Amino acid sequence: MVPPRVFISYSHDSIEHKKWVLDFATTLRNRGVDAVIDQWDLKPGDDLPHFMETELVQAQYVLMVCSNRYVDKANAGEGGVGYEKMILTSNYLSRIDASKVIPIIRQLSGSYRVPTFLATKLFVDFSKDSEVEFSFDELLRHLLNAPLYEKPEIGSNPFVPMNGAAPDRRSDGIKEVMKALAHCFDGSVRGFVYFSSLVSSVSMHRIALDKYLSDAKREGLVASSKHYPDRLVLTQKGREYIFEHSIVEL
């Protein structure tokens, strides 16, 4: 997967705010996003308008960190923030897709202010440090195209009960693990799958694989061989899961 390029726009409110933005951008890069900010990519003597225009056009997403000062500058057309607003709202740079602009709320007062030209856009709230992981989860799912739930296919039975009809979760990774197990099992004549084969068949991080495999075991879909811990056995419930989720067609 090619990491999405993300340009972060913010105002230099204070040293603390610049440090927060730097940490925010660093976290995005650590989690698979090509985050761009002036603190890394703009040097003394560089052309500021050219840098802004280039990044706003090239970035797949533009994250606007909406502190109260940022909002005031954007609405008043002040400084670099005002210049970025002018670019995004002008017809000159028609290559910019307005849907790629995402407001990031960073207002410790508990308000949810955004620049006037972003008033209709959904935002991600990063105001509460105690909930920052929930905010990163929401943002990264959008940036990395990894929604929490899969959109289900249209069914043929109009009388399926609502109880238990929730769509498959993409976040738990169990389905991806079961896909890999089914793939490995297809080439196995021994009735089990080596853990090393599973590791080489999935693209997720090893830590994530360990977590989701444990979840699959807890749900009774997979079991480890009693005498050989490196061997994975697909349970009857796991086989039913594979058929129910159309991983393997009957």
Structure summary:
By secondary structure, the protein is of the alpha/beta class. The protein has helices spanning 15-30, 38-41, 48-58, 68-76, 79-89, 132-143, 174-186, 195-201, 206-218, 236-244; strands spanning 5-9, 34-36, 61-66, 101-105, 124-125, 193-194, 222-224, 231-234. The longest helix has 16 residues, at 15-30.
Q: Could you walk me through the main structural features you see in this protein, from its secondary elements to its overall organization?
A:
This protein is an alpha/beta fold. The chain folds into 2 domains: 5-143, Rossmann fold, CATH 3.40.50.10140; 174-244, Orthogonal Bundle (Arc Repressor Mutant, subunit A). The chain contains 10 helices and 8 strands. The strands form 2 sheets. The protein has a 5-stranded parallel sheet with strand order 2-1-3-4-5, sandwiched between helices. A 3-stranded antiparallel sheet has the order 6-8-7. Strand 7 and strand 8 form a beta hairpin. It is elongated, with a radius of gyration of 23 Å. The model is unreliable at 90-95 (pLDDT under 50).
Question: Structurally, how many domains make up the residues?
Answer: 2
Beta percentage is: 5-15%
CATH topology of the largest domain: Rossmann fold
As residue ranges, the low-confidence spans are 90-95
Number of strands: 8
CATH architecture of the largest domain: 3-Layer(aba) Sandwich
Give a quick account of the main beta sheet: strands, pairing sense, barrel closure: 5 strands, parallel
Number of helices: 10
Q: Roughly how many Å apart are the termini?
A: 31 Å
- What radius of gyration results from the CA coordinates? 23 Å
Tell me the CATH superfamily of the largest domain: Toll/interleukin-1 receptor homology (TIR) domain
Structural class: alpha/beta
Just give the CATH class of the largest domain.
Alpha Beta
Q: Give the topology string: H per helix, E per strand.
A: EHEHHEHHEEHHEHHEEH
Mean pLDDT: 80
- The percent range for helix content is 40-55%
Strand order of the largest sheet: 2-1-3-4-5
User: What form results from the Cα inertia axes?
Assistant: elongated
